[in-house]
Amino acid sequence: MSNNAACLPDGIRTASLEPTRANLNYSFGLPGGPYCLGMARTVVRRLLSAHGLADMAELGVLAASELLANACLFTPGRDVSLSVRWRYGVLRLTVFDEHPAHAADVGDACRARRRQALATLDAVVNACGGICGLAAAEGPLAGSRMWVVVPREAATLYARI
Ligand SMILES: [Zn+2]
Questions:
Q1: From ligand 1's centre to the CA of 114, what distance in Å?
Q2: Distance 27 CA to ligand 1 centre (A)
Q3: Centroid of ligand 1 to alpha carbon of 35 (angstroms)
Q4: What is the reported pTM?
Q5: Is residue 115 part of a domain?
């Protein structure tokens, strides 16, 4: 018992353990079924609210839901991951899926279909001053990476849409 005490740091400052924008940094693995979308929406809303970004919850939930829906639609039955981060004054949501690699011409057509499926989200995010993207995941990861990056003022702009 007394040996374990040496492993505990002295003077833990509980104030530093509070959720703030600076420590909004979560990554989740999800089974990838459509039922995950509702759970992810709930989680993203709670995270943003707890970390002082409640005004961004509506847009964040939309982005997470649409990115994950794209992954579930084009890569059914495979695991996906979602990360929610605040860095340098922007909210970043990223989804990785396990979409299979294609030959170049098939890959271009597939990417075009996936971008079309993201067109509404892309338009909304652009109108809010953000960026929506889709690309192949970079090695050593396989699959695809989709992301939305929005500045804080995007919440105000989204409320006006
Ligand atoms: Zn494909």
A1: 8
A2: 24
A3: 22
A4: 0.90
A5: yes
Does 152 reside within a domain?
yes
| CATH code of the domain containing 85 | 3.30.565.10
Within-domain flag for 45: yes
Is residue 19 in some structural domain? no
Tell me the pLDDT tens digit for each residue of 79-99: 999 999 999 999 999 999 999
Proportion of the chain in helix, strand, coil states, percent, rounded to 5: 45, 20, 30
- Provide the residue range defining the domain that includes 72: 25-160
Can you tell me the distance from the alpha carbon of 18 to that of 12, in angstroms, rounded to the nearest whole number? 12
Total domain count for the chain? 1
Instruction: Say how many Å lie between the CA of residue 100 and the centre of ligand 1.
Output: 6
Tokens 């989804």 locate to 95
Ligand 1 centroid to residue 14 C-alpha, Å: 47
Distance 13 CA to ligand 1 centre (A): 49
Using alpha carbons only, what angle is made at residue 15 by residues 9 and 18, rounded to the nearest 5 degrees? 110
